[in-house]
Amino acid sequence: xxxxxxxxxxxxxxxxxxxxxxxxxxxxxxxxxxxxxxxxxxxxxxxxxxxxxxxx
Length: 56
Prior knowledge:
It is built from 2 helices and no strands. The longest helix has 23 residues. The protein starts with 8 loop residues before the first helix and ends with a helix. It is mostly helical. It is elongated and about 50 Å long. The protein has one domain.
């Protein structure tokens, strides 16, 4: 019952990961490859964090 309101941290990380990938795609479409690379790198860090949470 008390676990009903606890949020899963992986869901929050997954949404942040998807948001970063979307931003990276928009940067690539606008021709800003530096921003694309930075955002993709940040997204990969989030993905690694998600994998770490899933393995625990």
